[in-house]
């Protein structure tokens, strides 16, 4: 069997296995490439060498991911983000536009740890009663939370950049630096969109028939609801000096990642080592904190390490380069240099049919190789694909966190896609254009 055909079958098999939901990504990323290597004539020693090459490429990213989740989990347990979220909720005072803006802000803050499940657990139960009381669409809530979380998903300790770093052999912090202006622009754009959607929602509510039981109480109740939501779950009193230390530590860690003075994994290791004794004085409590957050950390780390096997074998065996050469030979010459742009444009629709792992671990390496033959830098290809795709993360039925959000809000996936898909796709296209204007994406 030719290397090109074996690589194509291996990638197709992995994508099919991931989409089926019948096996863990770890199973697909380990077994399929090993079988492909054996079928094409490579021996055990060759496979071991390929594995070692792939492992060396991804282990810094896996370690960073483990300690990043531990770090943000400790700060979240310490209540660092709660006062900010509660304050944002309390100042909106029942105004529809203020609530949509507050939703965007709260979602962005809640997703600082890079976990979609945590974001939805923090935001939807807190905000849904207000949306219901004011007769606002809960699908608008899910849309705004999804957009805010998607933008913050560009952070280096979130999943997408960690996956890209594994594929390209680059530090996620290094990948993140050119995206900082785009991320700031995206947050500003989100707030502007929240205002527009809030005004549209206000007009829709005014066209609804009045509810007699609520009509005389709307003004008082709507403002009270926000305050009640903000006060519903009081946070244990944390000493001011401890809050100040945690805030300073967070700023220091983000600053160190931004200027890239140390490897990201070491930055988060130091952050965890400082945060644990300050916030938890006893060793038993510190170990319990690590155990509490370790499952989430280890799940992602094992997937990244397993993907290292897949990437190591496909690269080391030349399956990937042979496959890309055949694709270039088939495609019209005029299309090849722009393939990454075309895929970026259709990134959000791809989210409906490809899981995140399949998109970045199986799809990205092929595109990097194909457009690389036309002289396009690998990092530019990665930026086009992540910017075009990342906004659609939380409208995809393949994202487990979305199903959690739907369950929390009592909503339907089909209606969520119809409500949010067009807006999310348009949002991603604007970001893709901005990425080109600032030079992150090149032709």
From TrEMBL:
Keyword Magnesium: no
Membrane topology per record: Multi-pass membrane protein
GO MF assignments: citrate transmembrane transporter activity; gluconate transmembrane transporter activity
Main location, first listed in the record: membrane
Gene Ontology CC terms, in alphabetical order: plasma membrane
Domain of life: Bacteria
Keywords: Membrane, Transmembrane, Transmembrane helix, Transport
Pfam families named among the record's database cross-references: CitMHS
Domain Citrate transporter-like span(s) in chain numbering: 8-388
Compartments it resides in: Membrane
Positions of transmembrane segments: 26-44, 56-75, 95-128, 140-159, 179-199, 243-259, 294-315, 327-346, 358-376, 382-406, 418-441
InterPro entries in alphabetical order: Cit_transptr-like_dom, Citrate_transporter, Glcn_transporter
Protein name (record): Citrate transporter
Species lineage: Bacteria, Pseudomonadati, Pseudomonadota, Gammaproteobacteria, Oceanospirillales
